[in-house]
Specification:
six-stranded mixed beta sheet, alpha+beta, 4 helices, 128 residues
């Protein structure tokens, strides 16, 4: 397993932890400051900058505080080159499952998420 692959796995696990605990400090470390957050599952299309996204996470009740089961999965990681990568991951928040397409850049030696484009999938069982 390449060093880049292992580094990306660590960033993705930090990303999952940031969402599960609503840890905005960790969230800001895994996302590039100029990252894009978007989904077409809302009308109109939802697009946020990190300055807009971080307060949304800060205002949430964390899944950890509710004792929600974790459903974090890395489906794939593709390393395109020394400074570019992609991952398809899944996680859950409340009664929704999410499929996230994460693009990564390596800036000053560290991998960070440059874009998060996601699909919302309400769970059939409605479990929180």
């Amino acid at each position: 397993m390449s060093e880049a692959f292992q580094d990306l796995q660590r960033v993705i696990h930090d990303y999952f932890d940031a969402l599960y605990h609503c840890d905005t400090d960790l969230l800001q470390r895994v996302f590039h400051p100029k990252a894009v957050y978007a989904t077409a599952d809302e009308t109109p299309l939802l697009h946020r900058t990190m300055d807009e996204y971080v307060p949304v996470v800060a205002a949430r009740q964390s899944p950890a505080s509710r004792g929600d089961a974790r459903r974090d999965v890395i489906d794939e990681i593709q390393v395109a080159g020394e400074n570019t990568a992609f991952a398809r991951v899944r996680c859950s928040i409340g009664s929704n499952d999410f499929v996230d397409f994460l693009t990564f850049v390596r800036d000053e030696g560290s991998w960070q998420i440059m874009s998060k484009i996601f699909q919302i999938k309400p769970r059939a069982d409605g479990a929180e």
